[in-house]
User: Fold this.
Amino acid sequence: MESGRFRLQRIGEKRYLLDVRGQVCPYPELLTMRALKSLSSGDTLEILVDNPPSVRDVPLAMKAGGYEVGEPMTVEGGWKLTVKV
Amino acid sequence: MSELPVDDITRFIGRYSIGRDANPLTTMGSLHFLRVKVPGGFMTSDQLRGVADIAEKYGRGLGEITNRQDIQLHWIDAKDTLEIFPKMKKLGFTTDMCGQGFAGPRYGDVRNIVCCPAAGIEQGEIIDVRSLLKRLSDFFIGNPDFQDMPKKFKTSISGCRSGCTRTVINDLALVAVEKEGKAGFTLLVGGGVGSTLPGPRLARSLGVFVRPEEAFDVVLATSEIHRDYSSRESKAKARFKWLLETWGIEKFRKALEEKLGRPLEDYDGPIFQKEDGHMGVRPQKQDGYYYVNVPTLGGRLSSMDMVLFADLSDEFGDGDLRLTPRQNIIIANVKEKNVLLKRLEEAGFPLKGSRMRWNSLGCASDFCGKTVSPHCKEILRETVDYLESHFDERLLNEARLRIHINGCPNNCCATEIAEIGLLGLLVREGEKTKQSYNISLGGEFGLKTAMGRLVEARVPAEKVPRKIEALLSNYLTKRKPSERLCEFCNRHTVEELKAYLNIKGE
Assistant:
Protein backbone atom coordinates (compact mmCIF):
# COMPACT_ATOMS: atom_id res chain seq x y z
CA MET A 1 0.00 0.00 0.00
CA GLU A 2 1.40 3.36 -0.95
CA SER A 3 2.47 5.69 1.83
CA GLY A 4 1.04 8.62 -0.15
CA ARG A 5 -2.38 7.50 1.00
CA PHE A 6 -1.66 8.81 4.47
CA ARG A 7 -1.15 12.49 3.77
CA LEU A 8 -1.74 15.18 6.31
CA GLN A 9 -4.20 17.64 4.84
CA ARG A 10 -4.14 21.21 6.06
CA ILE A 11 -7.80 22.07 6.59
CA GLY A 12 -7.47 25.42 8.38
CA GLU A 13 -5.22 27.64 10.40
CA LYS A 14 -3.09 25.25 12.50
CA ARG A 15 -5.61 22.49 11.77
CA TYR A 16 -4.85 19.23 9.96
CA LEU A 17 -6.70 16.10 8.90
CA LEU A 18 -5.51 12.49 8.77
CA ASP A 19 -7.76 9.93 7.09
CA VAL A 20 -7.09 6.36 8.27
CA ARG A 21 -10.45 4.88 7.36
CA GLY A 22 -10.24 1.27 6.30
CA GLN A 23 -7.32 0.55 8.59
CA VAL A 24 -7.34 -1.96 11.42
CA CYS A 25 -5.31 -1.81 14.63
CA PRO A 26 -2.54 -0.90 15.19
CA TYR A 27 -2.30 1.34 12.11
CA PRO A 28 -4.67 4.19 13.11
CA GLU A 29 -2.76 4.59 16.36
CA LEU A 30 0.69 4.34 14.79
CA LEU A 31 -0.16 6.71 11.96
CA THR A 32 -1.72 9.21 14.34
CA MET A 33 1.36 9.13 16.57
CA ARG A 34 3.55 9.65 13.53
CA ALA A 35 1.40 12.54 12.34
CA LEU A 36 1.45 14.28 15.70
CA LYS A 37 5.24 14.23 15.73
CA SER A 38 5.26 16.27 12.54
CA LEU A 39 2.99 18.98 13.99
CA SER A 40 3.81 21.97 16.18
CA SER A 41 2.57 23.07 19.55
CA GLY A 42 -0.89 24.62 19.22
CA ASP A 43 -1.80 22.58 16.13
CA THR A 44 -4.94 20.46 16.09
CA LEU A 45 -5.19 17.12 14.34
CA GLU A 46 -8.48 15.61 13.23
CA ILE A 47 -8.41 11.88 12.54
CA LEU A 48 -11.05 10.02 10.53
CA VAL A 49 -11.46 6.38 11.57
CA ASP A 50 -14.06 3.72 10.86
CA ASN A 51 -12.72 0.81 12.90
CA PRO A 52 -14.52 0.84 16.27
CA PRO A 53 -11.54 -0.39 18.33
CA SER A 54 -9.63 2.68 17.14
CA VAL A 55 -12.24 4.96 18.68
CA ARG A 56 -11.34 3.42 22.00
CA ASP A 57 -7.62 2.93 21.48
CA VAL A 58 -6.41 6.04 19.68
CA PRO A 59 -7.69 8.53 22.31
CA LEU A 60 -6.33 6.30 25.11
CA ALA A 61 -2.88 6.23 23.52
CA MET A 62 -2.91 9.96 22.81
CA LYS A 63 -3.91 10.78 26.37
CA ALA A 64 -1.13 8.51 27.62
CA GLY A 65 1.22 10.48 25.37
CA GLY A 66 0.20 13.71 27.09
CA TYR A 67 -1.99 15.12 24.33
CA GLU A 68 -5.28 16.90 24.83
CA VAL A 69 -8.00 14.72 23.30
CA GLY A 70 -11.54 15.73 22.42
CA GLU A 71 -14.64 13.54 22.54
CA PRO A 72 -15.03 11.31 19.45
CA MET A 73 -17.68 12.62 17.07
CA THR A 74 -19.82 10.43 14.86
CA VAL A 75 -19.49 11.38 11.21
CA GLU A 76 -20.74 9.71 8.08
CA GLY A 77 -19.07 6.32 7.76
CA GLY A 78 -17.17 6.48 11.03
CA TRP A 79 -15.85 8.83 13.66
CA LYS A 80 -13.76 11.97 13.91
CA LEU A 81 -11.20 12.16 16.69
CA THR A 82 -9.56 15.43 17.67
CA VAL A 83 -6.14 15.78 19.27
CA LYS A 84 -4.43 19.02 20.22
CA VAL A 85 -0.65 19.20 20.19
CA MET B 1 -0.30 18.71 2.29
CA SER B 2 2.69 16.92 3.63
CA GLU B 3 3.87 13.36 3.14
CA LEU B 4 4.26 11.39 6.32
CA PRO B 5 7.35 9.17 6.63
CA VAL B 6 5.28 6.04 7.13
CA ASP B 7 6.95 3.35 5.02
CA ASP B 8 8.05 1.46 8.12
CA ILE B 9 4.38 1.28 9.11
CA THR B 10 2.68 0.72 5.78
CA ARG B 11 4.86 -2.21 4.77
CA PHE B 12 3.01 -4.30 7.35
CA ILE B 13 -0.51 -3.32 6.28
CA GLY B 14 -2.44 -6.23 4.84
CA ARG B 15 -0.29 -8.89 6.46
CA TYR B 16 -0.24 -7.95 10.12
CA SER B 17 -2.80 -6.63 12.55
CA ILE B 18 -3.76 -6.85 16.17
CA GLY B 19 -7.25 -7.56 17.42
CA ARG B 20 -9.32 -6.07 20.16
CA ASP B 21 -9.43 -7.57 23.59
CA ALA B 22 -12.23 -6.21 25.69
CA ASN B 23 -12.48 -3.41 28.16
CA PRO B 24 -9.29 -3.64 30.22
CA LEU B 25 -11.12 -2.40 33.29
CA THR B 26 -13.36 -5.45 33.48
CA THR B 27 -11.18 -8.21 32.14
CA MET B 28 -7.53 -9.21 32.10
CA GLY B 29 -6.23 -5.73 31.39
CA SER B 30 -5.33 -6.56 27.80
CA LEU B 31 -6.28 -4.08 25.07
CA HIS B 32 -5.05 -6.10 22.11
CA PHE B 33 -4.33 -9.65 21.09
CA LEU B 34 -1.96 -10.78 18.39
CA ARG B 35 -3.04 -13.89 16.51
CA VAL B 36 0.02 -15.54 15.06
CA LYS B 37 -1.20 -17.30 11.95
CA VAL B 38 0.36 -20.76 11.80
CA PRO B 39 -0.81 -22.29 8.50
CA GLY B 40 -2.18 -25.72 9.25
CA GLY B 41 -0.60 -25.55 12.70
CA PHE B 42 2.75 -26.69 11.28
CA MET B 43 5.74 -25.06 12.88
CA THR B 44 9.35 -25.73 13.64
CA SER B 45 10.95 -25.71 17.06
CA ASP B 46 12.81 -22.51 16.11
CA GLN B 47 9.53 -20.83 15.17
CA LEU B 48 7.92 -21.85 18.46
CA ARG B 49 10.91 -20.52 20.38
CA GLY B 50 10.54 -17.29 18.42
CA VAL B 51 6.86 -16.99 19.37
CA ALA B 52 7.79 -17.75 23.00
CA ASP B 53 10.32 -14.93 22.86
CA ILE B 54 7.69 -12.48 21.55
CA ALA B 55 5.24 -13.65 24.21
CA GLU B 56 7.86 -13.20 26.92
CA LYS B 57 8.90 -9.72 25.81
CA TYR B 58 5.55 -8.25 24.83
CA GLY B 59 2.74 -10.51 26.06
CA ARG B 60 3.44 -11.25 29.72
CA GLY B 61 4.74 -14.69 28.80
CA LEU B 62 1.43 -16.22 27.73
CA GLY B 63 0.29 -17.86 24.50
CA GLU B 64 -2.88 -19.73 23.61
CA ILE B 65 -3.29 -22.40 20.99
CA THR B 66 -6.52 -21.58 19.20
CA ASN B 67 -8.90 -24.06 17.62
CA ARG B 68 -7.81 -22.84 14.19
CA GLN B 69 -4.22 -23.81 14.95
CA ASP B 70 -2.96 -20.28 15.61
CA ILE B 71 -1.16 -18.98 18.67
CA GLN B 72 -2.77 -15.97 20.27
CA LEU B 73 -0.84 -13.57 22.49
CA HIS B 74 -2.38 -10.88 24.70
CA TRP B 75 -1.42 -7.59 26.36
CA ILE B 76 0.10 -6.43 23.09
CA ASP B 77 0.80 -2.71 23.06
CA ALA B 78 0.19 -1.10 19.68
CA LYS B 79 3.42 0.85 20.03
CA ASP B 80 5.40 -2.40 20.27
CA THR B 81 4.04 -3.76 17.02
CA LEU B 82 6.74 -2.07 14.95
CA GLU B 83 9.20 -4.28 16.83
CA ILE B 84 6.97 -7.36 16.90
CA PHE B 85 5.95 -7.46 13.23
CA PRO B 86 9.55 -7.58 11.91
CA LYS B 87 10.31 -10.39 14.36
CA MET B 88 7.27 -12.29 13.09
CA LYS B 89 8.27 -11.70 9.50
CA LYS B 90 11.70 -13.12 10.24
CA LEU B 91 10.03 -16.19 11.73
CA GLY B 92 7.90 -16.58 8.60
CA PHE B 93 4.61 -15.71 10.25
CA THR B 94 1.80 -13.23 9.65
CA THR B 95 -1.46 -12.65 11.54
CA ASP B 96 -5.13 -13.04 10.81
CA MET B 97 -6.54 -9.70 9.69
CA CYS B 98 -9.05 -8.81 12.34
CA GLY B 99 -11.59 -6.66 10.53
CA GLN B 100 -14.46 -7.65 12.78
CA GLY B 101 -14.69 -4.23 14.33
CA PHE B 102 -15.90 -2.53 11.17
CA ALA B 103 -19.55 -1.70 11.14
CA GLY B 104 -20.37 -3.03 7.70
CA PRO B 105 -19.87 -6.27 5.79
CA ARG B 106 -16.27 -5.57 4.80
CA TYR B 107 -12.67 -6.54 5.33
CA GLY B 108 -13.20 -10.27 5.66
CA ASP B 109 -10.08 -12.36 5.00
CA VAL B 110 -9.30 -16.02 4.50
CA ARG B 111 -8.73 -17.28 8.01
CA ASN B 112 -5.99 -19.70 8.91
CA ILE B 113 -6.64 -22.84 6.91
CA VAL B 114 -7.15 -25.70 9.33
CA CYS B 115 -5.38 -28.92 8.47
CA CYS B 116 -5.16 -32.48 9.73
CA PRO B 117 -2.41 -32.16 12.35
CA ALA B 118 -1.09 -35.61 11.51
CA ALA B 119 -0.73 -34.92 7.79
CA GLY B 120 2.17 -36.77 6.29
CA ILE B 121 2.68 -39.00 9.32
CA GLU B 122 -0.72 -40.64 9.87
CA GLN B 123 -0.89 -44.32 9.06
CA GLY B 124 -3.44 -45.01 6.35
CA GLU B 125 -4.01 -41.39 5.34
CA ILE B 126 -5.33 -40.95 1.83
CA ILE B 127 -3.54 -37.74 0.92
CA ASP B 128 -0.68 -35.86 2.56
CA VAL B 129 -2.31 -32.46 2.33
CA ARG B 130 0.62 -30.31 3.44
CA SER B 131 1.69 -29.13 0.01
CA LEU B 132 -1.88 -28.07 -0.84
CA LEU B 133 -2.15 -26.30 2.50
CA LYS B 134 1.09 -24.44 1.89
CA ARG B 135 0.17 -23.45 -1.64
CA LEU B 136 -3.20 -22.10 -0.53
CA SER B 137 -1.81 -20.29 2.51
CA ASP B 138 0.96 -18.70 0.45
CA PHE B 139 -1.60 -17.55 -2.09
CA PHE B 140 -4.13 -16.03 0.32
CA ILE B 141 -1.89 -14.47 2.96
CA GLY B 142 -1.52 -10.78 2.24
CA ASN B 143 -3.39 -11.11 -1.06
CA PRO B 144 -5.25 -7.79 -1.49
CA ASP B 145 -7.87 -9.47 -3.68
CA PHE B 146 -9.08 -11.42 -0.64
CA GLN B 147 -8.91 -8.87 2.15
CA ASP B 148 -12.18 -7.12 1.61
CA MET B 149 -14.63 -9.99 1.41
CA PRO B 150 -18.07 -9.48 2.97
CA LYS B 151 -16.86 -11.49 5.95
CA LYS B 152 -14.16 -13.95 6.92
CA PHE B 153 -13.87 -17.26 5.10
CA LYS B 154 -12.96 -20.50 6.88
CA THR B 155 -11.47 -23.49 5.11
CA SER B 156 -10.27 -26.87 6.33
CA ILE B 157 -8.43 -29.74 4.70
CA SER B 158 -8.18 -33.26 6.03
CA GLY B 159 -6.50 -36.18 4.36
CA CYS B 160 -6.74 -38.83 7.07
CA ARG B 161 -10.23 -40.25 6.52
CA SER B 162 -11.62 -38.43 9.56
CA GLY B 163 -13.22 -35.12 10.39
CA CYS B 164 -10.37 -34.16 12.70
CA THR B 165 -10.46 -30.58 11.43
CA ARG B 166 -14.06 -30.12 12.62
CA THR B 167 -14.98 -30.03 8.97
CA VAL B 168 -18.68 -29.39 9.47
CA ILE B 169 -18.27 -25.89 10.89
CA ASN B 170 -16.18 -24.55 8.03
CA ASP B 171 -17.37 -22.49 5.08
CA LEU B 172 -15.51 -24.93 2.85
CA ALA B 173 -14.09 -28.27 3.93
CA LEU B 174 -12.01 -30.57 1.77
CA VAL B 175 -12.10 -34.17 2.94
CA ALA B 176 -9.94 -36.79 1.27
CA VAL B 177 -11.85 -39.75 -0.14
CA GLU B 178 -11.27 -42.50 -2.65
CA LYS B 179 -13.31 -43.13 -5.73
CA GLU B 180 -12.69 -46.17 -7.88
CA GLY B 181 -9.27 -46.52 -6.33
CA LYS B 182 -8.26 -42.93 -6.96
CA ALA B 183 -7.55 -40.40 -4.22
CA GLY B 184 -9.23 -37.02 -4.25
CA PHE B 185 -11.38 -34.73 -2.15
CA THR B 186 -15.05 -34.34 -1.58
CA LEU B 187 -16.40 -30.98 -0.44
CA LEU B 188 -18.62 -29.83 2.39
CA VAL B 189 -19.89 -26.28 2.22
CA GLY B 190 -21.74 -23.65 4.19
CA GLY B 191 -20.93 -24.57 7.79
CA GLY B 192 -20.77 -22.09 10.64
CA VAL B 193 -22.27 -22.12 14.09
CA GLY B 194 -22.02 -18.45 15.05
CA SER B 195 -25.04 -16.26 15.62
CA THR B 196 -25.03 -14.64 12.17
CA LEU B 197 -27.80 -15.50 9.75
CA PRO B 198 -29.21 -18.02 9.08
CA GLY B 199 -28.07 -19.25 12.51
CA PRO B 200 -25.96 -22.33 13.24
CA ARG B 201 -25.49 -24.54 10.19
CA LEU B 202 -23.45 -27.67 9.61
CA ALA B 203 -21.63 -27.85 6.31
CA ARG B 204 -23.42 -29.94 3.71
CA SER B 205 -21.96 -32.33 1.20
CA LEU B 206 -21.70 -30.93 -2.30
CA GLY B 207 -21.57 -34.47 -3.68
CA VAL B 208 -18.50 -33.89 -5.81
CA PHE B 209 -15.15 -35.56 -6.33
CA VAL B 210 -12.21 -33.23 -6.82
CA ARG B 211 -8.88 -34.53 -8.04
CA PRO B 212 -5.87 -33.36 -5.97
CA GLU B 213 -4.56 -31.27 -8.86
CA GLU B 214 -7.95 -29.46 -9.07
CA ALA B 215 -8.18 -28.69 -5.35
CA PHE B 216 -6.36 -25.35 -5.41
CA ASP B 217 -8.62 -24.01 -8.17
CA VAL B 218 -11.73 -25.20 -6.36
CA VAL B 219 -10.78 -23.41 -3.13
CA LEU B 220 -9.88 -20.28 -5.07
CA ALA B 221 -13.15 -20.34 -7.02
CA THR B 222 -15.22 -20.88 -3.88
CA SER B 223 -13.45 -18.00 -2.13
CA GLU B 224 -14.13 -15.80 -5.14
CA ILE B 225 -17.80 -16.75 -5.08
CA HIS B 226 -17.97 -15.76 -1.41
CA ARG B 227 -16.18 -12.51 -2.14
CA ASP B 228 -18.31 -11.60 -5.13
CA TYR B 229 -21.74 -12.97 -4.22
CA SER B 230 -22.10 -13.16 -0.44
CA SER B 231 -24.32 -10.41 0.86
CA ARG B 232 -22.95 -6.94 1.50
CA GLU B 233 -26.34 -5.85 2.77
CA SER B 234 -25.38 -6.35 6.42
CA LYS B 235 -22.82 -8.10 8.59
CA ALA B 236 -25.52 -10.50 9.77
CA LYS B 237 -25.97 -11.83 6.23
CA ALA B 238 -22.36 -11.65 5.13
CA ARG B 239 -21.11 -15.15 5.94
CA PHE B 240 -20.92 -17.76 3.20
CA LYS B 241 -23.55 -19.92 4.97
CA TRP B 242 -26.17 -17.26 4.21
CA LEU B 243 -25.31 -17.40 0.52
CA LEU B 244 -25.69 -21.18 0.60
CA GLU B 245 -29.00 -20.79 2.42
CA THR B 246 -30.38 -18.39 -0.17
CA TRP B 247 -28.89 -20.04 -3.25
CA GLY B 248 -29.24 -23.67 -2.28
CA ILE B 249 -26.60 -26.30 -2.90
CA GLU B 250 -27.37 -26.88 -6.59
CA LYS B 251 -27.10 -23.24 -7.57
CA PHE B 252 -23.79 -22.99 -5.77
CA ARG B 253 -22.46 -26.08 -7.54
CA LYS B 254 -23.49 -24.61 -10.87
CA ALA B 255 -21.77 -21.32 -10.06
CA LEU B 256 -18.63 -23.17 -9.01
CA GLU B 257 -18.61 -25.23 -12.20
CA GLU B 258 -19.12 -22.12 -14.32
CA LYS B 259 -16.21 -20.42 -12.59
CA LEU B 260 -14.02 -23.49 -13.08
CA GLY B 261 -15.14 -23.82 -16.68
CA ARG B 262 -15.89 -27.50 -16.33
CA PRO B 263 -18.37 -29.81 -14.62
CA LEU B 264 -17.37 -31.47 -11.37
CA GLU B 265 -17.40 -35.21 -11.02
CA ASP B 266 -20.15 -36.67 -8.79
CA TYR B 267 -19.36 -38.43 -5.54
CA ASP B 268 -21.82 -40.29 -3.34
CA GLY B 269 -19.50 -42.51 -1.34
CA PRO B 270 -18.63 -42.31 2.35
CA ILE B 271 -17.13 -39.04 3.57
CA PHE B 272 -15.70 -39.96 6.96
CA GLN B 273 -14.39 -43.44 7.59
CA LYS B 274 -13.29 -43.03 11.18
CA GLU B 275 -13.44 -40.69 14.13
CA ASP B 276 -9.98 -39.50 15.03
CA GLY B 277 -8.66 -36.76 17.25
CA HIS B 278 -5.09 -38.04 16.75
CA MET B 279 -4.81 -38.44 20.50
CA GLY B 280 -2.03 -39.89 22.62
CA VAL B 281 1.02 -41.67 21.24
CA ARG B 282 0.60 -43.04 17.73
CA PRO B 283 2.89 -44.98 15.43
CA GLN B 284 3.58 -43.01 12.26
CA LYS B 285 3.50 -44.31 8.74
CA GLN B 286 7.27 -43.93 8.82
CA ASP B 287 8.58 -47.16 10.36
CA GLY B 288 9.90 -46.83 13.90
CA TYR B 289 8.60 -43.31 14.45
CA TYR B 290 5.80 -42.03 16.65
CA TYR B 291 3.93 -38.83 17.11
CA VAL B 292 3.03 -37.64 20.58
CA ASN B 293 -0.06 -35.49 21.01
CA VAL B 294 0.25 -33.59 24.27
CA PRO B 295 -3.05 -32.41 25.78
CA THR B 296 -3.14 -28.86 27.05
CA LEU B 297 -6.91 -28.55 27.74
CA GLY B 298 -7.70 -25.05 26.58
CA GLY B 299 -4.37 -24.41 24.92
CA ARG B 300 -2.94 -21.95 27.41
CA LEU B 301 0.87 -22.13 27.54
CA SER B 302 3.54 -20.06 29.20
CA SER B 303 6.51 -18.95 27.13
CA MET B 304 8.54 -21.45 29.17
CA ASP B 305 6.14 -24.22 28.15
CA MET B 306 6.62 -23.23 24.51
CA VAL B 307 10.38 -23.37 24.88
CA LEU B 308 10.03 -26.75 26.59
CA PHE B 309 8.07 -28.19 23.66
CA ALA B 310 10.55 -26.74 21.20
CA ASP B 311 13.49 -28.23 23.10
CA LEU B 312 11.82 -31.64 23.50
CA SER B 313 11.00 -31.63 19.81
CA ASP B 314 14.66 -31.03 18.99
CA GLU B 315 15.86 -33.65 21.44
CA PHE B 316 13.39 -36.43 20.65
CA GLY B 317 12.17 -35.53 17.17
CA ASP B 318 13.43 -33.35 14.37
CA GLY B 319 11.93 -29.99 15.32
CA ASP B 320 8.58 -30.80 13.66
CA LEU B 321 5.70 -29.51 15.81
CA ARG B 322 1.99 -29.28 15.03
CA LEU B 323 -0.73 -27.30 16.78
CA THR B 324 -3.97 -29.23 16.66
CA PRO B 325 -7.51 -27.94 16.04
CA ARG B 326 -8.26 -29.18 19.55
CA GLN B 327 -5.78 -26.81 21.20
CA ASN B 328 -3.08 -29.42 21.77
CA ILE B 329 0.46 -29.81 20.47
CA ILE B 330 2.02 -32.71 18.60
CA ILE B 331 5.70 -33.59 18.71
CA ALA B 332 6.34 -35.54 15.52
CA ASN B 333 8.99 -37.98 14.33
CA VAL B 334 9.84 -39.34 17.77
CA LYS B 335 11.81 -42.56 18.23
CA GLU B 336 12.36 -42.73 21.99
CA LYS B 337 8.76 -42.21 22.96
CA ASN B 338 8.99 -43.66 26.47
CA VAL B 339 11.77 -41.31 27.53
CA LEU B 340 9.88 -38.39 26.01
CA LEU B 341 6.71 -39.32 27.90
CA LYS B 342 8.68 -39.43 31.15
CA ARG B 343 10.15 -36.01 30.45
CA LEU B 344 6.72 -34.61 29.61
CA GLU B 345 5.28 -35.97 32.83
CA GLU B 346 8.13 -34.47 34.86
CA ALA B 347 7.47 -31.13 33.17
CA GLY B 348 3.77 -31.18 34.11
CA PHE B 349 2.35 -32.47 30.82
CA PRO B 350 1.44 -36.11 31.50
CA LEU B 351 -0.24 -38.04 28.72
CA LYS B 352 -2.78 -39.32 31.19
CA GLY B 353 -6.45 -38.83 31.80
CA SER B 354 -9.61 -39.28 29.84
CA ARG B 355 -10.16 -38.46 26.18
CA MET B 356 -11.86 -35.28 27.33
CA ARG B 357 -8.42 -33.79 27.99
CA TRP B 358 -7.57 -34.06 24.29
CA ASN B 359 -11.03 -33.50 22.91
CA SER B 360 -12.51 -30.55 24.74
CA LEU B 361 -12.31 -26.92 23.75
CA GLY B 362 -12.47 -23.64 25.65
CA CYS B 363 -12.46 -20.07 24.38
CA ALA B 364 -10.54 -17.07 25.68
CA SER B 365 -13.61 -15.37 27.11
CA ASP B 366 -11.66 -13.82 29.97
CA PHE B 367 -9.74 -11.76 27.40
CA CYS B 368 -12.55 -10.86 25.05
CA GLY B 369 -14.60 -9.78 28.02
CA LYS B 370 -17.77 -11.73 27.34
CA THR B 371 -17.73 -13.54 30.68
CA VAL B 372 -17.13 -12.75 34.32
CA SER B 373 -15.30 -15.18 36.56
CA PRO B 374 -15.39 -18.15 36.45
CA HIS B 375 -14.39 -17.88 32.79
CA CYS B 376 -14.59 -20.59 30.14
CA LYS B 377 -11.15 -22.12 30.53
CA GLU B 378 -11.51 -22.18 34.32
CA ILE B 379 -14.85 -23.96 34.08
CA LEU B 380 -13.47 -26.39 31.52
CA ARG B 381 -10.54 -27.40 33.72
CA GLU B 382 -12.69 -27.57 36.83
CA THR B 383 -15.29 -29.72 35.09
CA VAL B 384 -12.80 -32.17 33.58
CA ASP B 385 -10.95 -32.52 36.90
CA TYR B 386 -14.23 -32.99 38.73
CA LEU B 387 -15.54 -35.64 36.36
CA GLU B 388 -12.25 -37.54 36.34
CA SER B 389 -12.30 -37.60 40.13
CA HIS B 390 -15.84 -38.99 40.19
CA PHE B 391 -15.86 -41.49 37.33
CA ASP B 392 -13.63 -44.24 36.07
CA GLU B 393 -11.56 -43.13 33.10
CA ARG B 394 -12.73 -46.12 31.07
CA LEU B 395 -16.37 -45.15 31.54
CA LEU B 396 -15.69 -41.55 30.57
CA ASN B 397 -13.96 -42.74 27.44
CA GLU B 398 -16.84 -45.05 26.55
CA ALA B 399 -19.14 -42.04 26.65
CA ARG B 400 -17.02 -40.45 23.87
CA LEU B 401 -17.51 -37.21 25.69
CA ARG B 402 -16.38 -33.81 24.45
CA ILE B 403 -17.03 -30.51 26.17
CA HIS B 404 -17.01 -27.33 24.12
CA ILE B 405 -17.35 -24.18 26.17
CA ASN B 406 -17.80 -20.72 24.75
CA GLY B 407 -18.32 -17.33 26.31
CA CYS B 408 -20.59 -15.73 23.72
CA PRO B 409 -22.88 -16.50 20.77
CA ASN B 410 -20.05 -15.95 18.30
CA ASN B 411 -19.34 -19.52 19.29
CA CYS B 412 -15.75 -19.97 18.16
CA CYS B 413 -15.62 -23.23 20.09
CA ALA B 414 -18.71 -24.60 18.37
CA THR B 415 -20.82 -25.68 21.32
CA GLU B 416 -23.46 -27.24 19.07
CA ILE B 417 -21.26 -30.04 17.78
CA ALA B 418 -20.05 -31.31 21.15
CA GLU B 419 -21.76 -33.97 23.23
CA ILE B 420 -21.84 -31.32 25.96
CA GLY B 421 -21.95 -27.70 24.85
CA LEU B 422 -21.77 -24.80 27.26
CA LEU B 423 -22.60 -21.35 25.97
CA GLY B 424 -21.98 -18.48 28.33
CA LEU B 425 -24.39 -15.71 29.18
CA LEU B 426 -24.48 -13.11 31.90
CA VAL B 427 -27.50 -13.08 34.19
CA ARG B 428 -28.40 -10.10 36.33
CA GLU B 429 -29.21 -10.93 39.93
CA GLY B 430 -30.07 -7.70 41.66
CA GLU B 431 -26.98 -5.52 41.55
CA LYS B 432 -24.73 -8.38 40.55
CA THR B 433 -23.98 -10.02 37.24
CA LYS B 434 -23.57 -13.77 37.48
CA GLN B 435 -21.85 -15.99 34.98
CA SER B 436 -24.19 -18.65 33.68
CA TYR B 437 -24.17 -21.20 30.89
CA ASN B 438 -26.74 -22.68 28.57
CA ILE B 439 -26.25 -26.43 28.41
CA SER B 440 -26.82 -28.18 25.09
CA LEU B 441 -26.51 -31.92 24.73
CA GLY B 442 -26.14 -34.49 21.99
CA GLY B 443 -23.95 -32.78 19.45
CA GLU B 444 -21.53 -34.89 17.51
CA PHE B 445 -18.98 -34.82 14.75
CA GLY B 446 -16.80 -37.54 13.42
CA LEU B 447 -18.37 -40.50 11.70
CA LYS B 448 -21.79 -38.96 12.23
CA THR B 449 -22.79 -35.37 12.64
CA ALA B 450 -25.46 -33.91 14.86
CA MET B 451 -26.39 -30.59 16.37
CA GLY B 452 -26.89 -30.54 20.10
CA ARG B 453 -30.19 -29.41 21.60
CA LEU B 454 -30.52 -26.74 24.24
CA VAL B 455 -31.56 -28.60 27.37
CA GLU B 456 -31.18 -26.16 30.22
CA ALA B 457 -30.64 -22.42 30.09
CA ARG B 458 -29.02 -20.00 32.52
CA VAL B 459 -27.30 -22.57 34.71
CA PRO B 460 -25.09 -20.81 37.29
CA ALA B 461 -21.44 -21.49 36.45
CA GLU B 462 -20.63 -23.08 39.79
CA LYS B 463 -23.27 -25.74 39.19
CA VAL B 464 -21.98 -26.83 35.79
CA PRO B 465 -19.57 -29.60 36.97
CA ARG B 466 -22.19 -31.19 39.24
CA LYS B 467 -24.89 -30.94 36.56
CA ILE B 468 -22.69 -32.84 34.15
CA GLU B 469 -21.84 -35.35 36.87
CA ALA B 470 -25.58 -35.91 37.33
CA LEU B 471 -26.07 -36.42 33.62
CA LEU B 472 -23.22 -38.92 33.42
CA SER B 473 -24.52 -40.85 36.43
CA ASN B 474 -27.86 -41.19 34.65
CA TYR B 475 -26.18 -42.10 31.39
CA LEU B 476 -24.07 -44.82 33.01
CA THR B 477 -27.03 -46.44 34.75
CA LYS B 478 -29.53 -46.09 31.90
CA ARG B 479 -27.48 -46.48 28.75
CA LYS B 480 -27.86 -49.33 26.32
CA PRO B 481 -24.84 -51.58 25.69
CA SER B 482 -22.10 -49.67 23.82
CA GLU B 483 -24.26 -46.60 23.66
CA ARG B 484 -22.31 -43.35 23.44
CA LEU B 485 -23.38 -40.23 25.28
CA CYS B 486 -24.59 -38.46 22.15
CA GLU B 487 -26.73 -41.47 21.19
CA PHE B 488 -28.12 -41.61 24.72
CA CYS B 489 -28.96 -37.91 24.60
CA ASN B 490 -30.54 -38.12 21.19
CA ARG B 491 -33.00 -40.85 22.17
CA HIS B 492 -34.31 -38.82 25.09
CA THR B 493 -36.53 -35.77 25.11
CA VAL B 494 -35.31 -32.40 26.26
CA GLU B 495 -37.51 -32.73 29.35
CA GLU B 496 -36.00 -36.11 30.21
CA LEU B 497 -32.48 -34.79 29.74
CA LYS B 498 -33.25 -31.77 31.86
CA ALA B 499 -34.31 -34.10 34.65
CA TYR B 500 -31.06 -36.04 34.23
CA LEU B 501 -29.14 -32.81 34.82
CA ASN B 502 -30.73 -32.34 38.22
CA ILE B 503 -28.24 -32.32 41.06
CA LYS B 504 -29.17 -34.76 43.83
CA GLY B 505 -30.56 -33.05 46.90
CA GLU B 506 -31.45 -29.80 45.13
Q: What stands out?
A: The domain at 123-266 of chain B is CATH 3.30.413.10 (Sulfite Reductase Hemoprotein; domain 1). Chain B is about 30% helix and 20% strand.
